[in-house]
Amino acid sequence: MVGLLLAGVLWLAPLPASAQPEGPGDPVGPAAQDHPPKVPFGGMDAFHFVLQVRGFHILQNMQEAESKPSRTLLIILGEEAQRQLDDNLTEGLQAYLDKGGALLLATDQKTAGSLETVLKVRVNGTHIQAADKAHAYRENLDCPLVVNADGIFQGLRVATNVPSYLEDLRFYLPFLGPFPPGWAKFDHAKAPVRNPLFALTFEDMKWSPPGQALVLSDQSVFINGMMLLPGNDNLDFAYRCVDWLTRSAGRDQVLLIEDGYIVSDLRVPPFWIAGALPDLNKPPIPPINPADLPAPPVQVMDQMLAGMEREGVFDKLIYQHLDVDRLLRGLTMLLTGALLVYGLWRWVRSRYRVESDAPLFSASTSGLAPSLALVAQRHKTMLQEGNLWEVARALARQWFFQVGQPPPSPDTAGGRTLEPPRITVQGSWPRRRALRREVLHLWQLAFSETPVRISPPRFTRLTAELDDLQAALAEGTLHLEQPGTNQA
Prior knowledge:
The protein is of the alpha/beta class and 488 residues long. The chain folds into two domains: 41-291, no CATH class; 374-481, no CATH class. The chain is 38% helix and 11% strand. It has helices at 30-34, 45-53, 62-67, 81-88, 92-98, 114-117, 224-228, 234-245, 270-276, 297-310, 313-321, 324-350, 361-365, 374-385, 389-402, 429-447, 456-475; strands at 57-58, 72-77, 102-106, 121-123, 128-130, 145-146, 158-159, 166-168, 184-186, 199-201, 212-216, 253-258, 261-262, 422-425, 478-481. Strands 1, 2, 3, 10, 11, 12 and 13 form a seven-stranded mixed β-sheet that branches. A two-stranded antiparallel ribbon has the order 4-8. Strand 12 and strand 13 (261-262) form a beta hairpin. The longest helix is centred in the C-terminal third of the chain and has 27 residues, at 324-350. It is elongated, with a radius of gyration of 44 Å. It starts with 29 loop residues before the first helix and ends in a 7-residue tail after the last strand. Residues 1-36, 171-191 and 273-288 have low confidence and may be disordered.
């Protein structure tokens, strides 16, 4: 489990001597001051204590939990949470909740399976950070806070420890504790996460009452280091989670699974129970002096590795586990095999020789096939010659067809008459003369069989003339009518 100052080499500061009852196995007198008991940072003793204070009977297997779901609280924490849920519930999560079972699942690992199909929620698995130190527990960006939330979070300041976030797949489920917008971001990409959720409850689903479910995106909120250090309300939050899930009368047994293993007993140290007996509803949190905390694990590991290097531990391990003779034999066999493969490859290639003097077929025939289509070749030729007569004639004919002038009809000799349409022009004399000349020139270009040279600049002027004639038609200063029938 990733987290702040994880268990193993790190221990919390000792509990006060007043909370340690003297017994046959405990040191007494001055020895009690020299060897006070210590609590592992990443352990679950504090959470076990909460369950014991609430009077739960611990179950030993999933069959006992499924036999009486209405009396059972199933708690799955940490790694392999999804696998434990899917593999061990023989009738499935839906049946367990339908029969009145209660579920508390907390993990920062990516989930799928029944959480998606039944509860329509999934843990993303990507770790997020606080956006700044003001919204992080003890200014550690890996510990974003959950504050100002409703429900079981009301009035609490819950500290997380390298959490992930939930994805609500139904978009309308009631949520308890989202990280406030803008206060969290991805661990590696540093990209903001929009409204990442920390907890989801399902009390208003079709199986409620009597079944309840609560899903959290971080199991580290229940470890000793997060529940006992000052400055957060994680211990109170643990009590509220358990109380919310056991509102149903008679729910007095619990099956606790931590990191894939079933907890067979709560294993609460006796001095914890003695210190909590005066007030079972709110057990006292032992005072912890941060100055007594040992060095962070990174520094401890650096010191340990440096010492191992000075003592030559790594060299000794290599010499103890490395057989030089076997290594040389293996290298010899590897080189021999490589030489055989190379020789076989060279022999196969020597049996076929490519004639280097003869041209390749693709190279010799590449010039025979046209590189462009016929129309594209024609356009390219016109541009190279600088004569756009074909395009200009087609453009002129298209304009006459658009304004309602049919092509000239053939005469009795089988030829074509070039009689233009009747032209009526309004306006000044120069304007009438210019428009009439443009229409006649355009008619000659459109329907004459004699090609004329149209250069690119002349083609540009032709398009301008067409725009001018079109504008005159739209203004009503130019009218075109079909010519009369030719008289023999």
